[in-house]
């Protein structure tokens, strides 16, 4: 026991070969020295209304991980290791011109543009108008200011949205292969408003009666009244066929780039490589679903880029709760097993350190 106690207080050291990812890179030896951090403050504590702060009794400091020769952006990160039995924090120095900030699924729902949650029982995004408004406030208060700051530093700003390429959004936003004129954007906004407002946003009500068998009433109940049904029955025909816009809670600039989910990951990867992107700061919704598993989710991007999940610039879905705090905490914590987590206040120009 005395030996284990001494080990807990001492440095934990391993030598790891970091294999090159990019052609022409020379491998380097990373000294994986873990220095215990005393009296560490909670992580992700800047916006506790949206994300419950992360608290862990064992915290370690690790050496610099990413170190670009032309670095001008500091990104402190952390991850969790069961084997190290605690949270490991590490600094990174990256080049802004090699960095993209991607926001996953900033759906323009219940934001005044015309696309609305269908009544009386329809579901979209965070599933109720009230929860969609909460996510909209998170976008305005946390993500949009972050995007504005990163845009001023000349980072590439991108958004991923559901659906296939359509003529309206193709002329409303810059895409992989086209940047529309101001006249085209103005006309596209009018066309978008007309199409979004053309739907009745009405679906069928909740079932008044459910037929149950004697043997399997629970199975029968959920087959006829599931926890989430977002098809035509409750949402109405055509709801998912409209060109979903970027939320009005984001200040979109002409040089920002739209990603169409339906095109798949390959075109996104090719575009980022052509732009010289090596690093991705990932924001957006929903932490437990789209943020990880869609075209621009971290499961795809982390295969080819250095991905940093901005833990307070995302919200998880939060069924059965009035707040996303604990759900976001849980899903970011789980993601930290194999991904690096940062927060808005940890991303700053190196000359401001």
What are the main properties of this structure?
353 residues, alpha/beta, six-stranded parallel beta sheet, four-stranded mixed beta sheet, globular, disordered N terminus
Give an overview of the whole structure.
The chain has about 350 residues and is an alpha/beta fold. About 25% of the residues lie in helices and about 20% in strands. The chain contains ten helices and 15 strands. The strands form four sheets. A six-stranded parallel beta sheet has the order 11-10-9-12-13-14. It has a four-stranded mixed beta sheet with strand order 3-4-7-6. Helix 2 links the parallel strand 9 and strand 10. The longest helix is centred in the middle third of the chain and has 24 residues. The two termini are about 40 Å apart.
